[in-house]
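lol ok so funny story. i was supposed to be doing the assay writeup but got distracted and ended up predicting the structure for this chain instead. priorities right. anyway since i did it might as well share w the group, maybe its usefull for someone
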Amino acid sequence: MNKEKVIIIGNDGNVGRGIVKALSDNYSVTGIDVTSGKGIEDYSAEELKEMLHEGIDIVYAAEVGNRDEYETNLNLSEENNQRFREFCLKITGTGIAVRLHYIGGSWTKRGIEGLLVSDASPNKDLHDANAYEKAKISAEENAETLAAELNLDISFYDWASVVPNFAPNFSIYKMTQEALDEGQITYSPGDYGRPLLHAVDAGRALRLIAEAEGDIISGKFRKYLIPGVFTPFSKFAEIVREIVEDKTGKKIKLVEQKETPEFLKTKSESKHLKELGFKGSKEMVEEGLRETCEVALRDLGED
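and the output, tada:
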């Protein structure tokens, strides 16, 4: 990152909050989020000019993150792309050279080879991708087009699955509900799991990448992978059982799922981030899983 000030669009979501915490010790962070009453679309060109200066880094983390919404709203991908285009047009309209860090992708949109996703992994073929992954592939294509068309410097990130994650469709939330309703937790044993990263750790990875980038280059498009720490589903289940039993006094049984898709053994890694000294924290991931379970219990009226 070239300057001391960073602007984060979408600072109040799971991803944005982690980035704010990761950057706040070293940078002056300004957050813009519609939840605070004024989204980026509400800023005039003059207001933006007052906020920006040459070489500033802007993190755009305002995409809809809940994958289920892409199945129910078939226009969501197009809406995301149009919103990002309008944002880029506003930025270029100021005449100020900036670097955009776009959290528009997901590690899951990349193809799996040998149960591994790495820096070199290409995007999936569209016929192998679900609606969420297709939207993320489209976001990348849109960003690359805008970088060339508007002479912008854009770094595009295929983000890790992050915790805490308070969405009701996340595994921890579902396990918590099953524990309360049925007195058991069904999980996939053995080598099955998911690469996860604490949201703050993911923000730290972005910081390392951004700080290693050189001068702003108009029309430059870069793509990065933010990998996760592989976390077995057995650990998910153990954490949920421990918290539910402690908070409710109920005894919870663990039940092994009989069949699990093979791709749920997939790991992710980034050689580039390793070279920058990044290593995701297993302890922080587990802390994020615990926080998610505790919030789920409160949501479900059990704490």
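The first strand starts at residue 5 and ends at 9. The mean pLDDT is 95.
back to the writeup now i swear
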